[in-house]
Amino acid sequence: MRGPDAVGLIDRCLRLFEEARSSGRAVTVSELAGRFPRARGRGAERGRRFHLSRVLSLDPYAAAYEERWACPLPLAWRFRWGWLYGVADQVVFERGVPVAVIEVKSYPGARKAERVQASLYGLLVMLVFAVRPRVYLYHSRLEEVPEWEAVALEALRGFPRA
Q1: Going by fewer Cβ within 10 Å, which terminus of the chain is more open, N or C?
Q2: Which residues contact 72 (CB under 8 A, 6 or more apart)?
Q3: Domain residue spans in the chain?
C-alpha cells in the first residue's frame, strides 16, 4: 500500500487523534500505563511537552511515499468507555505500511509500565491501520516486546474501573 491509500489512513489517524484530544472521555497511553510498576524515568512531563511540540510540526505523509520511513505518530482509538490516545515515539513504515513501533526510554532498564506503554501503541497502530506491527522498547538497546498483544489487552482489562 502506497500513495493515496496510505495517505487516507494517515489522514484518518490524525483525525482520530484530534477527536480524542478534544473529547471529555479520553485517557492517554501514559496515564493508563502509569498504573503499572515503572522504571525511574526522568521527565514524563518533559516527554509530554516534547511530543506535543513535535506533533504540531509533524509531517507523517512522507511515510506514504518513501520506501522506508520512521516518525513520531499521534494515535487514538475509541473504545466503549472512551478514547485512548498518545504519541508513539517512532512508527516505522515500509512502503506506506506501519511495520514496527518503537518506544524510546532515556534510562536503562524497563519494567512493566514501559512494556505496557509500547504494547498499547502497538495495539493502536493495529486498530487504526489494520496491520500487526512488531513492538520494541529502546533503552540502551533495542528489545522486542514479546506477546505485546496480551500485554495490551491485560492493561485494558478492568479499565476504567481500576
Answers
A1: C
A2: 51, 54, 55, 58, 87, 88, 89, 90, 91
A3: 4-156
